[in-house]
Amino acid sequence: DSGVTQTPKHLITATGQRVTLRCSPRSGDLSVYWYQQSLDQGLQFLIQYYNGEERAKGNILERFSAQQFPDLHSELNLSSLELGDSALYFCASSVATGPNYGYTFGSGTRLTVV
Amino acid sequence: AQTVTQSQPEMSVQEAETVTLSCTYDTSENNYYLFWYKQPPSRQMILVIRQEAYKQQNATENRFSVNFQKAAKSFSLKISDSQLGDTAMYFCAFMIHSFGNEKLTFGTGTRLTIIP
What we know:
- The complex is a heterodimer of chains A (114) and B (116).
- Chain A is mostly beta strands.
- In chain A, 0% of the residues lie in helices and 53% in strands.
- Chain A is built from no helices and 11 strands.
- In chain A, strands 2, 4, 5, 6, 9, 10 and 11 form a 7-stranded mixed sheet that branches. In chain A, strands 1-3-8-7 form a 4-stranded antiparallel sheet, with no helix packed on it.
- In chain A, a hairpin with a 5-residue loop joins strand 7 (64-68) and strand 8.
- In chain A, 38% of the residues are buried.
- Chain B is an all-beta fold.
- Chain B is globular, with a radius of gyration of 14 Å.
- The A-B interface holds A 2, 31, 33, 35, 42-43, 45, 48, 50, 55-56, 58, 88, 90, 92, 94, 97-99, 102-105, 107-108, 110 and B 33, 37, 42-47, 50, 91, 95, 97, 99-109.
């Protein structure tokens, strides 16, 4: 157990629907990162939050949004889902900004859009 | 933009042998970090080893070591005395040393199989 908790582990939904993925960071970690792993795009950075504020944005679609709450857990919202959104979504956390502290990844949420 | 290239999609090696995974990267930055992550069949992303670009000494973690050639922009991973549990996808990753933007740029991965 890495200490980063992602729920649910698996999610199957239909095209056009909306889902929410949840991430609880490791205790004491202030930064949360979201990544998408798909067969055709590989591992792609989506977005980073630090202590409730958005810090960096990557290749995140407009249909996707995220937030980090006061208790530091984060949610990734995916709407108007398409077949191509099927992927493994990872959350990672670190104690503060700065790569010296390293990342800890969760075990991911497998999203299947049918 | 930074790019990371792993030119070996798949590799296999006998148990107890040594294997080297290749990684090259392209960047105009001078301060950055390089990582190797392991993804076993469980899907968990596990940090194997980390290298700071400003350090000339190659990082080592038990059986894992890197050969960091900054001028050549090369960052290979050597696994000594390979074990069955080393079977996994291995990803090379790059991060600029920039507070407030710590995104990782990953390579496409190398699938390593350790043969009993």
